[in-house]
Amino acid sequence: QVQLVESGGGLVQAGGSLRLSCVASGRTFSTYGMGWYRQAPGKEREFVARISWSGGNTYYSDSVKGRFSISRDNAKNAVNLQMNSLKPEDTAIYYCNADSGTGRYWGQGTQVTVSS
Q: Which among 22, 33, 25 has a CA at the least distance from the CA of 103?
């Protein structure tokens, strides 16, 4: 079982930045692919970014490419999402995701609100 705890959400003006963090329990964090997803009110959860177990490969949705950056620190069991040039349409609950290959785990989410 993997437990994920997100932090770093909040209220920011358009054009601003936020850094989300997710800390995972478990001894095998370094073997998991990690990702961030988000869900806006009235919409389905959507993919934001993903990083391979080694950190060598990253993937982004078209809507955040060039503005968001995902990174991980396996020594700290942490994955981060640096969000720059935020837009009102980035407003959502952001969820951390761990993919062990045999199971997927989710955090409780952290609210990000971008005002215009």
A: 33
For the stretch 104-116, pLDDT in tens is 999 999 999 999 9
**Closest Cα partner for 11 from 96, 88, 109?**
88
What b/e readout covers 47-76, taking b as 16+ CB neighbours within 10 angstroms? ebbbbebeeeeeebeeebeeebbbebebee
- Residue written as tokens 């001894």? 27
- For residue range 29-45, list pLDDT tens digits in order: 888 999 999 999 999 99
Whole-Å CA distances, 75 to 6, 28, 30, 71: 17, 11, 8, 13
* 116 alpha-carbon distance from chain centroid: 22
Q: Which tokens go with 7?
A: 């932090």
Residue pLDDT, tens place only, 52-90: 999 899 999 999 999 999 999 999 999 999 999 999 999
The token duo for 31 is 């073997």
